[in-house]
Amino acid sequence: MDDYLREIQGKTAHDPYHNIIKSSSSSKRCVWVPGPVIVGAGPSGLAAAACLKEKGVPSLIIERSNCIASLWQLKTYDRLKLHLPKEFCELPLMSFPPDFPTYPTKQQFVQYLEAYARRFEIRPVFNQSVVSAEYDKSVGVWRVRTAAEAEYLCRWLIVATGENAEAVVPWIEGMEEFGGDVVHTSRYKSGGVYKGKKVLVVGCGNSGMEVCLDLCNHNATPSLVVRDTVHILPQQMLGTSTFGLSMWLLKWLPMRLVDRFLLVVSRLLLGDTGRFGLCRPHLGPLELKNLSGKTPVLDVGTLDKIKNGDIKVLPGIQRLGQQSVEFVDGRTENFDAIILATGYKSNVPCWLKESEMFSEKDGLPKRPFPNGWKGQRGLYSVGFTKRGLLGASMDAKNIAADIQSCWSAEAKHLISPISCPYFMQKHTDDVVFSD
Ligand SMILES: Cc1cc2nc3c(=O)[nH]c(=O)nc-3n(C[C@H](O)[C@H](O)[C@H](O)COP(=O)(O)OP(=O)(O)OC[C@H]3O[C@@H](n4cnc5c(N)ncnc54)[C@H](O)[C@@H]3O)c2cc1C
Question: Which EC numbers does the record give (predicted)?
């Protein structure tokens, strides 16, 4: 009997799974996930799960919110439609329904994602915000902890928390004095509540431009702060989508030539945007996107409102006063509300304890597209390409193929704790095995 105990003690000292559980004892619940853990149930996380499923690899999605695609369902304005035509936004393995319009509404896009999750039987764990994920070298697994004090253990970790995980809210001098509403676009639903009000929209990306249009349509009086140069392109040109045409031209022509073409046609269709305070950058729209990730604005009618004076273009803000805004050119104007269309950022550095794959500075993969999807020790990223849903789909396919190639061999090893009677006897109270 003593010999038996000594043997068990000797084994447990070197048993990686024993050590995993021992050091997890502070967590309320510990879950062993045989396949990859995916953090985030947005389109990217769903695409990764579906591609894995198709290859026979089970996965588990952990999502902080109470629904899939929380960015689309909870943080976008009512009038939002996909900015790009549907053929460039569909996820792998399932097309949009043929009766959907070229630019589906956000409600249609969410319907599509819900059908997608149903079709691939993706059932994320909701209301679990990941607060840390760290590779445990001693046992070769990722420890993923949530705010609810659960710990998930996995061999592969897929980061799918998105480029838009947190709103960027700039600090503006005098903000506390302003007194009116100051909201980020992630909380803006419709211009209806601003009817009859003077509203300053800060930021001239796609969201800022569209919010201005929405405000006009609801009889508010918007002004737009434009601090930087910006490329505005018509959403459609020569009877087709500008994005689709650009992609097609890039197959035959160098980027600079395609840029030149886009700018000539835009000038013919939109006129000189610089005349209205919207000066173009020196680099062309595609080259700029490629180098800096800055997306050109696809105009859906805002420019006409700027041209006819319904939307005033103003320079950068110097400081805020009581319901007033002083601009860098010395002008001061009164406003009832300010809407910050100042974008989003990744939250990866807040929770992923790793410094090789992701940059601390912007929370994006350090390796440029198309190689940013794979890190070390079973770490992957999906949806950080600055190329929207198209980029996410490419990542998801690459990740699934890569994991599948080692899944069969690794799965055998990973099943060992479940099949080990000693492990089961000792740890069944502490550990839950995900199916
Ligand atoms: C207004 C707007 C319009 C857009 N239009 C288009 C378009 O037409 N075409 C296109 O290709 N792209 C578009 N985009 C880009 C858009 O970001 C992507 O289409 C898409 O939403 C990216 O999917 P994702 O899954 O990578 O990120 P998200 O959709 O942001 O999903 C990430 C998920 O991760 C969750 N999460 C974050 N942190 C944690 C955590 N710590 N723990 C657990 N869960 C977490 C979030 O709650 C979220 O559900 C648009 C973006 C915006 C803001």
Answer: 1.-.-.-
Q: Give the Cα separation of 389 and 398 in Å (integer).
A: 14
In the chain, residues under CATH classification 3.50.50.60 are 2-165+346-432, 168-344
Tell me which CATH code domain 2-165+346-432 carries. Answer: 3.50.50.60
Residue by residue, DSSP assigns 213-271 as HHHHHTT-EEEEE--S---EEESEETTEEHHHHHHHHHTTS-HHHHHHHHHHHHHHHH-
Burial of 268: CB neighbours in 10 Å, binned 0-12, 13-18, 19+: exposed
**CA dihedral angle for residue 106, residue 108, residue 113, residue 115, rounded to 10 degrees:** 160
Neighbour count for residue 128 (Cβ, 10 Å): 21
Question: pLDDT value at position 427?
Answer: 40
pLDDT along the chain (435 residues), means of 10: 37 40 57 96 98 98 98 98 96 98 98 98 98 96 96 97 98 96 98 98 97 98 97 96 97 98 98 97 96 94 97 98 98 98 98 97 95 97 96 98 86 47 38 52
pTM reported for the whole predicted model:
0.90
Q: What residues have CB less than 8 Å from 408, skipping those under 6 apart?
A: none
Topology (CATH level 3) of domain 168-344: FAD/NAD(P)-binding domain (3.50.50)
Residue pair 46/113 in contact (Cβ under 8 Å)? The answer is yes
The residue to mutate among 389, 394, 399, having the most atoms of ligand 1 within 8 angstroms of its beta carbon, is: 389
**What residues contact residue 240 under an 8 Å CB cut-off, 6+ apart?**
none
In sign, the C-alpha dihedral spanning 348, 350, 352, 353 is positive
75 Cα–ligand 1 center, Å: 10
Alpha-carbon distance of 296 to 348, in angstroms, equals: 25
How many CA atoms within 13 Å lie on the side-chain side of 289?
Answer: 18
Ligand 1 centroid to 70 CA: how many Å?
8
* Separation between Cα atoms, residue 388 and residue 83, nearest integer Å: 10
Query: How many angstroms separate the CA atoms of 430 and 428, rounded?
Result: 6
Residue 253: how many other CB atoms lie within 10 Å: 13
**Ligand 1 atom 27 nearest Cα:** 162
Nearest CA to ligand 1 atom 41: 130
What pLDDT was estimated at residue 21? 46
Q: Residue-wise over 138-174: b if at least 16 C-beta within 10 A, else e?
A: eeebbbbbbeeebbbbbbbbbbbbbbbbebeeeebee
